[in-house]
């Protein structure tokens, strides 16, 4: 999570450095927020259709937008979970690699290889 905050900080500094003035920074922020809003609307519409298929009767009115934001946040958390799991697997592989490398060096040193 710390690396994600560092990446967001670096991106915000980079955006501020690329922008010539404050209006350009605000425009970039507005476009980013519009992107997330559109993604949440699409996810909300899809989830609303899924609820409509699974549960008889129409879903409550106005549920698409909050459902979309909740779905978007869940998707982001899921992706971060995959990254965390991948980090654990990579650490195991790196550790096994170091152990095998040390064993090979020791076997070479005693003349077995």
Provide a descriptive summary of the structure in words.
It is a single chain. The chain has 113 residues and is mainly alpha-helical. Helices cover 85% and strands 0% of the residues. It is built from 3 helices and no strands. Helix 2 (22-54) crosses helix 3 (64-109). The longest helix is centred in the last third of the chain and has 46 residues, at 64-109.
- Which percent bin holds the helix content? over 70%
Mean pLDDT: 83
Structural class: mainly alpha
Euclidean distance between termini CA atoms: 44 Å
Order of helices and strands: HHH
* Rg, Å, rounded: 24 Å
Shape: elongated
Number of domains: 1
Beta fraction: under 5%
Main sheet attributes: strand count, strand direction, barrel closure: none
Contiguous low-pLDDT stretches (5 residues minimum) are none
Q: How many extended strands? A: 0
The number of helical runs is 3
């Amino acid at each position: 999570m710390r690396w994600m905050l560092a990446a967001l900080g670096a991106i915000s500094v980079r955006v501020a450095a690329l922008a010539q003035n404050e209006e350009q920074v605000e425009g970039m922020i507005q476009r980013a927020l519009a992107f997330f809003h559109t993604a949440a609307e699409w996810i909300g519409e899809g989830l609303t259709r899924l609820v409509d298929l699974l549960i008889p009767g129409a879903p409550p009115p106005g549920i698409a937008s909050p459902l979309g934001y909740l779905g978007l946040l869940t998707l982001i958390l899921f992706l971060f979970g995959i990254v965390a799991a991948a980090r654990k697997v990579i650490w195991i592989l790196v550790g096994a690699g170091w152990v095998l490398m040390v064993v090979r060096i020791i076997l070479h040193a005693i003349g077995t290889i």
